[in-house]
Amino acid sequence: MRTLILGCKGQLGKDLVAVFGEEDEVVGFDLPEIDVSSVDDVSRVMDDTRPEFIVNSAAYTNVEDAEDEEDSAFLANEQGARIVAERAADADVPVVYISTDFVFDGTKTTPYEPEDDVNPLSVYGRSKLAGEVAVRAAAKKHFIVRTAWLYGPGGNNFPEKIIAAAQKNPTLQVVHDEVGSPTHTWDLALATRALSRTEAYGTYHAVNAGSCARDEFARALLECAGIDTPVNPCSLDEFPSKARRPVYSVLSARTLEDATGHRIRDWREALVHYTERRS
Ligand SMILES: NC(=O)c1ccc[n+]([C@@H]2O[C@H](COP(=O)([O-])OP(=O)(O)OC[C@H]3O[C@@H](n4cnc5c(N)ncnc54)[C@H](OP(=O)(O)O)[C@@H]3O)[C@@H](O)[C@H]2O)c1
Asked: For ligand 1, is residue 245 a contact (CB within 6 Å)?
C-alpha cells in the first residue's frame, strides 16, 4: 500500500513514516513543500503520489500562541483538514485526521470515550474540533484519531522541557492537578497503522494505557533518564497560561483496541522505550 503522511517532519510524523514504512511504501510531505490549507498544494501532491491511504498529522500545535493567532490555527487545523479530506474523498482513499484530548472540557472523572460530549476550552481545541467536523462532512472513509500528551524524539514536548529544567535546577515544581494519558508517538503510529488495516471508519482514541498526573509523569521520566532532581507537586493556579486546558483528559482506547485487536501498552513501558530512543 502507498501511504501519504502529511506533517511528516513533526514529532508524530517522523514515527508515522518509520512505522508505516516497515510495511508500506511511504511518501511524506510537510511545510514548506506543501501547505495543507492550499487546495493547489494538496491537489498537486495527490496527483504526483497517487496514495492509497492518507494520514494527516499536519497541524498548528502551539496551544498558547493559538489564543492570539486564531486565524492561523483554524487555517491549518480546520481548512487544512477539510481540503485533505475532500481530496481523499475525490480519490476514494481513506484518510486519518489526528485530533486531541483538548476537544473535551475535563469535567468527567472517568476516561473519555469517543462518543462523549465535546466542549473545547481553548482556541486550539476549537480549531481541532472544527477539523473533526470538516473531516466527517467531507469523507465517508475517515478515521479521526484523538490522542493526548504526545511526545516523541526531536519534539518540543513535556518530557524534553522537564529534562532540560531538571538539568538546570536543584528541584522542580510540577502540577499535580492535571491528569491525562501520556502517549509515545511510536505507540500512536502503531495504533494508527492497525486502524489503517481495517475499514472500521469512525472516531477513536489512541493513547498509552493508564493515566497519571503531570508530576507523576515527570518523576517517572526522570527516573528512566537517570536524573535525580526532586519533583515537588504544585497546583495549576501557580502556572498562569493564556489557554484553558482540561484538568482531566484521560482517554479510553477501548473501541480502537476492539476494532483492531491491537493493544496499546502502558504509559510507563512506553516512557522507558522513549528514554532509550533519545539516549
Ligand atoms: N503534541 C501534543 O501533545 C498533541 C496532543 C494531542 C494531539 N496532537 C495532535 O497530534 C498531531 C501531531 O502533533 P505533533 O506533536 O507531532 O505536532 P508537530 O510536531 O507540531 O508537527 C506538526 C507538523 O505539521 C506541520 N504543519 C503545520 N502547519 C502546516 C500546514 N499548514 N501544512 C503542512 N504542514 C503543516 C508543522 O510544521 P512547522 O513545525 O513548520 O509548523 C509540523 O512539522 C497534530 O494533529 C496535533 O494536533 C498533539
From this structure: no
Written as nine digits, the cell of 255 is: 473501541
Per-residue pLDDT of the chain (279 residues; tens, 9 = 90+): 999 999 999 999 999 999 999 999 999 999 999 999 999 999 999 999 999 999 999 999 999 999 999 999 999 999 999 999 999 999 999 999 999 999 999 999 999 999 999 999 999 999 999 999 999 999 999 999 999 999 999 999 999 999 999 999 999 999 999 999 999 999 999 999 999 999 999 999 999 999 999 999 999 999 999 999 999 999 999 988 999 999 999 999 999 999 999 999 999 999 999 999 997
Amino acid at residue number 75: L
Instruction: Give the 3-state secondary structure of residue 174.
Output: strand
For the chain, give the longest Cα–Cα distance.
56
What is the residue type of 212?
Answer: C
Does the pTM surpass 0.85? The reply is yes
Which among 60, 97, 124, 204 is annotated as catalytic? 124
CA distance 188 to 222: 22
Q: 222 C-alpha vs ligand 1 centroid, how far in Å?
A: 25
The residue whose C-alpha atom lies closest to atom 38 belonging to ligand 1 is 31
Determine whether the shortest distance from the Cβ of 188 to ligand 1 is under 6 A.
Answer: no
187 touches 245 (CB < 8 A):
no
Dist. CA 98 → ligand 1 center (Å)? 9
Q: Is the CB of residue 155 below 6 angstroms from any atom belonging to ligand 1? A: yes
Q: What distances in angstroms separate CA 226 from CA 11, 216, 221, 230, 279, one per listed residue?
A: 23, 15, 9, 12, 11
d(CA 150, CA 98): 11
